[in-house]
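Practice problem 4.
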């Protein structure tokens, strides 16, 4: 009994979950993202799609197998075949593929890389040539069935079984674990117990291709043909499905489709995109090139694990965010920037920068675009329903819109908005480009009354209560009082701050039947009695954890919508008057809101319209609960200089990985298979062992580390989707081994080497000390001997110096003596000359007159003088002496200058003796001029210039 109750509860939960996730919006268009060839680097056509348990998507593309993880694309090729036509992934993660004359599967190897294993090699070469394209792959239990036009190949338990077509197959389908095939002659067949069993009444679709089969209630099957439309097979025959969807397919042809949970069917077309219909054939959505698809031919469709649609197109890939609570009215509905929207008289009116547009409101808006309300072309700022009448604040004036073609201009100046006046039920005040005006309700309806005098500035942000007109402008808050007849402003007061220390005015708004003044998320009311602003702490507390807001507005359900940092959030009002903050669902609208003119039109919780810069968004709050799910983060790859691990393929997990120190520069890539707003998916990472801080959130899906030290590391990655929801941490452990010189064995070797070195050094030190003592003795002996030798050398040098001094002194004495000798010799020469003169004079005396005695005495005197002159050989002895003394000098001079004459040698000797020119002239018996001429000739022979001293030169020889 308990088991049955538990089973019923689980069934109820499952049904509730199915209902929540199977809702499909029929208002507006879902978000569509197109992927071009330049994005995925593959061929144009995409024939099949599947998804693995990690959320990675795979596409059978003309150029191979494509893999997409939300961050990056990869391409894998088949041997001998470029094109892949079919794909199917089993529970183990094997990716079965079929191409031209080739089929097999990809599986992750030990390093996580996808490796191809061919199954077609199990058949003979001749049979392989007849395979042609593998168009469909089905997994039924342990069987994997590959279907071509001629055969089916059944792979089970590593064996391949082949079954030939009765005639020729078209396509095949697996429904409720039953395999159906179309034969061109026999119609639909069921492959059962190794036999092809024809279905009764199915030959009606012969000569036409069945591209899709879908299970229907009451065990019926919906069959989609290429050109004959849609049929219901009830077990007895094929009946045309007379529905709106069938009419569409007859016009545009079908290329199959996919069932969306158990309530809707997406049907691909050749000519006009894709339709989504319910089980009664009513078209809920139609998406084609005009509405955002890049190509109208849809070759295949696939429902991912979040109930979003993926389309394989004839040229490209498309993602349709069907599970989102948002849908959009954009360019395909002829809408531009939206400033306001309202529901009035069963029509949805939208104020845009191009005018006011409308569309019928029956809670289903599919095909037709919005239409322009006649007479509203131009900038429309606001739409408001006041007293069951629709007012438009327009650049051309205050407009009263009674219908699509009925517009009344109440005043022709530019308007921003209108508000009813408390205490004046028949009046409303309006903000214009240059102040305020008043309108009055009369018997003929609303009419312009007057402009309010006293204020002439543009006024688009204002509120009014019983006593004051409040306006926020240019960081100032204006408090204005009107006259009784509403014709002028009698008093104006401005405020720069609401409380001391809080300069500036953030926003002014009315909710909960009160006017609130906000600055930095602090909310104030105005006390008329005290003429002060006082803080409402209860409201301020609601915004304590909310970023600083820019504006705030209350919708008809009491929810408080606020803007911050170009983003939108809402405080949802509960039944007990408490509020719950909701931000995540609106994060995708960030940057698309109309600045300073945020428009929120809440019809009910399932129909909320939000104005955007490029159209209108429709939001179903009841769908957001199941839409926002926790993302998953994966480390897609780990790369080092020597190896690459792919961690994001399949379900296999790698053990701790070790890399050598020389490969200590690593690179990680991340992924999060989240396909809604992939450009806003962010990652944060932490490498434990390198840092203890998480990185800032970033859209970059890779990280590199260089020159890591040896040790154990733990890489942790988390992802955050566009709604701000964070994933759990994904962890990868790896170890970098130390370099050989920091290895444990190396340290043991270092210790042993150090110990050995210490022992060796100690021994060497001891030997060194011993040797030093020996060498010290030797050295002392050597120093003693050197000193002794030095003393002896110094003594010898001293003696030598003394000897030299003695020789110099002796030389000086000799020179002095020579000089004296020369002088004496000169005196002798002079004496002899005088004596010779006396002799000559004596000879001139006439001795004939003398007596004999006198003659005798005179002759004796003459002979005595002549004897003295002839006997004196001092000069010759002097010359000989000088030559002997200066022999070495004369020898060196002769050797150096061989052409020098003996006369010049004598002159050089006299010059060396520092004899004067007069003395030399007397010795050489020449004139003074002769001496100068001889000196000149000597200088020339010695090659002396005019500046060189002759005597100094001779002394240097």
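Answer key:
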């Amino acid at each position: 009994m308990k088991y049955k109750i538990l089973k019923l509860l689980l069934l109820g939960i499952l049904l509730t979950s199915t209902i929540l996730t199977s809702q499909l919006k029929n208002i507006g268009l879902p978000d569509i993202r197109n992927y071009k060839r330049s994005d995925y680097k593959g061929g144009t056509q995409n024939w099949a799609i599947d998804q693995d348990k990690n959320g990675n998507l795979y596409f059978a593309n003309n150029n191979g197998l494509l893999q997409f993880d939300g961050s990056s694309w990869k391409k894998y090729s088949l041997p001998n075949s470029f094109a892949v036509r079919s794909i199917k992934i089993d529970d183990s993660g094997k990716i079965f593929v079929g191409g031209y004359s080739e089929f097999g599967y990809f599986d992750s190897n030990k390093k996580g890389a996808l490796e191809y294993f061919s199954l077609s090699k199990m058949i003979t070469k001749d049979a392989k040539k007849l395979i042609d394209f593998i168009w469909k792959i089905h997994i039924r239990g342990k069987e994997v069935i590959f279907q071509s036009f001629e055969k089916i190949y059944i792979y089970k338990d590593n064996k391949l079984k082949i079954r030939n077509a009765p005639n020729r197959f078209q396509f095949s389908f697996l429904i409720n674990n039953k395999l159906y095939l179309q034969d061109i002659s026999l119609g639909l067949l069921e492959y059962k117990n190794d036999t092809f069993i024809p279905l009764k009444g199915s030959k009606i679709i012969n000569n036409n291709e069945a591209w899709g089969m879908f299970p229907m209630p009451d065990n019926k099957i919906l069959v989609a043909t290429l050109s004959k439309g849609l049929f219901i097979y009830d077990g007895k025959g094929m009946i045309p499905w007379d529905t709106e969807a069938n009419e569409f397919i007859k016009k545009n042809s079908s290329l199959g489709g996919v069932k969306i949970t158990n309530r809707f069917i997406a049907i691909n077309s050749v000519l006009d995109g894709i339709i989504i219909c319910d089980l009664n054939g009513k078209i809920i959505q139609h998406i084609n090139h005009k509405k955002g698809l890049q190509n109208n031919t849809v070759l295949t469709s696939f429902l991912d694990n979040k109930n979003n649609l993926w389309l394989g197109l004839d040229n490209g890939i498309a993602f349709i965010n069907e599970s989102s609570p948002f849908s959009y009215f954009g360019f395909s509905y002829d809408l531009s920037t939206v400033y306001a929207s309202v529901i009035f008289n069963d029509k949805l009116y939208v104020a845009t920068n191009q005018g006011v547009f409308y569309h019928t409101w029956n809670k289903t808006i599919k095909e037709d675009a919005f239409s322009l309300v006649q007479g509203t072309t131009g900038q429309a700022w606001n739409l408001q329903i006041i007293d069951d009448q629709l007012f438009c604040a327009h650049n051309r004036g205050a407009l009263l819109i009674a219908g699509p073609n009925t517009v009344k201009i109440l005043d022709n100046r530019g308007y921003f908005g209108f508000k009813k006046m408390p205490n004046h039920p028949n009046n409303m005040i309006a903000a214009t480009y240059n102040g305020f005006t008043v309108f009055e309700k009369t018997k003929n309806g609303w009419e312009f009354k007057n402009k309010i005098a006293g204020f002439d500035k543009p006024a688009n942000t204002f509120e009014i209560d019983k006593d004051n007109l409040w306006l926020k402008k240019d960081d100032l808050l204006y408090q204005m009082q009107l006259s009784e007849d509403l014709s002028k402003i009698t008093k104006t007061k401005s405020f720069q701050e609401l409380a001391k220390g809080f300069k500036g005015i953030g926003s002014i708004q009315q909710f909960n039947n009160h006017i609130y003044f906000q600055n930095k998320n602090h909310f104030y009311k105005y006390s008329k009695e005290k003429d002060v602003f006082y803080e409402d702490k209860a409201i301020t507390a609601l915004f304590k954890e909310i970023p600083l807001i820019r504006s705030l507005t209350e919708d008809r359900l009491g929810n408080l919508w606020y803007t911050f940092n170009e983003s939108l959030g809402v405080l949802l009002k509960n039944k007990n008057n408490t509020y719950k903050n909701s931000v995540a669902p609106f994060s995708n609208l960030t940057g698309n809101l109309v600045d300073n003119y945020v428009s929120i039109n809440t019809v009910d919780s399932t129909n909320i319209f939000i104005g955007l810069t490029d159209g209108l968004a429709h939001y179903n709050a009841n769908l957001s609960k199941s839409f926002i799910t926790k993302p998953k983060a994966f480390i897609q790859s780990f790369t080092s200089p020597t190896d690459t691990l792919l961690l994001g393929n399949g379900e296999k997990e790698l053990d701790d990985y070790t890399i050598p120190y020389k490969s200590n520069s690593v690179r990680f890539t991340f992924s999060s298979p989240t396909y809604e707003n992939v450009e806003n998916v962010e990652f944060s990472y932490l490498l434990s062992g390198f840092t203890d801080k998480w990185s800032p959130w970033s859209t970059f899906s890779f990280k590199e580390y260089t020159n890591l030290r040896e040790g154990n590391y733990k890489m942790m990655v988390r992802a955050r989707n566009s709604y701000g929801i964070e994933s759990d941490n994904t962890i990868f452990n790896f170890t970098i081994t130390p370099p050989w010189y920091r290895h444990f064995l190396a340290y043991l070797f270092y210790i042993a080497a150090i110990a050995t070195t210490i022992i060796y050094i100690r021994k060497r030190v001891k030997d060194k000390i011993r040797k030093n003592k020996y060498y010290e003795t030797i050295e002392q002996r050597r120093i003693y001997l050197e000193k002794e030798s030095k003393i002896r050398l110094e003594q010898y040098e001293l003696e030598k110096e003394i000897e030299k001094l003695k020789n110099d002194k002796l030389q000086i004495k000799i020179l002095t003596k020579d000089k004296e000798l020369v002088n004496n010799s000169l005196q002798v020469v002079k004496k002899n000359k005088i004596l010779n003169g006396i002799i000559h004079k004596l000879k001139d005396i006439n001795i004939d007159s003398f007596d004999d005695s006198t003659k005798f005495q005179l002759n004796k005197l003459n002979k005595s003088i002549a004897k003295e002159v002839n006997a004196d050989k001092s000069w010759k002895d002097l010359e000989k002496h000088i030559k002997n003394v200066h022999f070495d000098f004369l020898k060196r001079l002769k050797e150096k200058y061989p052409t020098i004459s003996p006369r010049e040698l004598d002159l050089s000797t006299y010059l060396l003796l520092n004899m004067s020119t007069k003395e030399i002239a007397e010795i050489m018996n020449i004139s003074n001029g002769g001496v100068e001429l001889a000196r000149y000739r000597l200088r020339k022979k010695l090659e002396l210039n005019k500046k060189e001293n002759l005597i100094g030169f001779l002394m240097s020889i």
